[in-house]
Amino acid sequence: MIRKYKTEDTDALIAIWNNAEALAHPFLSDDVRNQVRKDMRNMYLPNAETWVLEDDGTPVGFIAMIDTEIGGLFLDPSQHGKGMGRQMIDHVVSLKGPLKVEVFKDNKIGLPFYERYGFEITGEDIFDVTGDETFKMAMPVS
Description:
- This protein has about 140 residues and is of the alpha+beta class.
- The chain has helices at about 10-25, 30-45, 85-95, 110-115, and strands at about 1-5, 50-55, 60-65, 70-75, 100-105, 120-125, 135-140.
- It has a seven-stranded mixed beta sheet, with helices on both faces.
- The protein is globular and about 40 Å long.
């Protein structure tokens, strides 16, 4: 089941992020991770349009949106490969239409996931905080 984020989800979503982010972004420093963790609690989750994926009433993933851009999509690693990431994107696409996302070039989980879904690279950028390269991606507009 996918539902809107509630403030009481915060700790569970940060735990999901901790587990998934370590796999997706092993190249980020602990300082950057610690700052993002704080920002998630105080800035990102309260201000984004966030959808929570539950399995048996327990949050297992979430997708945070800023208009039509995916600010973050994280799924508990135990749930990878089960179609749940696709389910979250499908949900948001049904509400908003084609989406955009920015992904680290070195993200060995997210980048292939978005490519399999059908996102196409539309540009490149640099993550100012670390200097890491990113790809800007978008769903083709039909």
